[in-house]
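wait is this the right file?? whatever heres the structure
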């Protein structure tokens, strides 16, 4: 059942312009001005070797999980993208509690991908290029608080090494107008969010917050990283059924 959301979820809708994106088979028109801030950053110089296993997991936080999940559901090689919480305890991994900003959790997305099709480094390239702004400290867009921080939760030491090297690489070439504030937080568990948060962008594409803040990210992915863009999103229900 759809539940009401706090005021921070609401933002004025964008005026639709000339750019278009295909979402779940429906062409949606997105304001070009809303997509201008995103830009492609260089791929990582240090990356994991091509995967020998069919799956790997990346856990990423970059503001409201609706948009981050929506982006990675459109990335080729991604098997599933699940919204949830990371950084705090299991007992506080609940939306209303996390929203207080006192739990240590960040709204996060667990991205399961096929490392034979897309590398961990390229997952991070999408994360830094279009999924969020890594220079904003404890906020993204209209949302503020530590629960909206930019953070990477590596699955192992190799992921941590790749992420740290990539952040340094991007800062060294001044890929952004300000230093990256993304933190690498190790040893943190991920807890899936409530069912009503899953696939929110795909299920509610006309919701004002989604229209103004998140659909431009999908358009950015299609425009800036077309080799990684997948028109049909892989939704949580579909991914679960395929397992």
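ok assuming it is, sequence goes like this
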């Amino acid at each position: 059942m759809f539940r009401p959301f706090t005021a921070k979820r609401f933002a004025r809708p964008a005026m639709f312009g000339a750019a278009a994106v295909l979402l779940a088979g429906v062409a949606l028109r997105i304001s070009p001005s809303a997509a201008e801030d995103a830009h492609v950053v260089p791929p990582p110089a240090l990356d994991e070797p091509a995967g020998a296993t069919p799956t790997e997991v990346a856990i990423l936080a970059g503001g409201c999980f609706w948009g981050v999940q929506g982006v990675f559901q459109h990335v080729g090689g991604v098997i599933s993208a699940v919204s949830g919480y990371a950084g705090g305890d299991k007992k506080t991994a609940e939306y209303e509690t996390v929203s207080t900003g006192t739990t240590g959790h960040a709204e996060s997305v667990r991205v399961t991908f096929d490392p034979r099709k897309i590398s961990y480094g390229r997952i991070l390239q999408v994360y830094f290029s279009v999924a969020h702004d890594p220079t904003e400290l404890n906020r993204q867009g209209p949302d503020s608080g530590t629960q909206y921080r930019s953070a990477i939760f590596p699955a192992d030491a190799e992921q941590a090494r790749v992420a740290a090297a990539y952040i340094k690489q991007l800062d060294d070439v001044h890929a952004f107008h300000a230093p990256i504030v993304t933190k690498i937080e190790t040893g943190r568990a991920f807890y899936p969010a409530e069912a009503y948060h899953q696939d929110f962008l795909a299920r509610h594409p006309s919701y004002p917050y989604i229209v103004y803040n998140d659909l431009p990210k999908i358009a950015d992915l299609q425009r800036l990283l077309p080799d990684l863009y997948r028109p049909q999103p892989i939704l949580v229900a579909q991914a679960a059924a395929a397992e």
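The first strand starts at residue 19 and ends at 23. so i think its the right one actually
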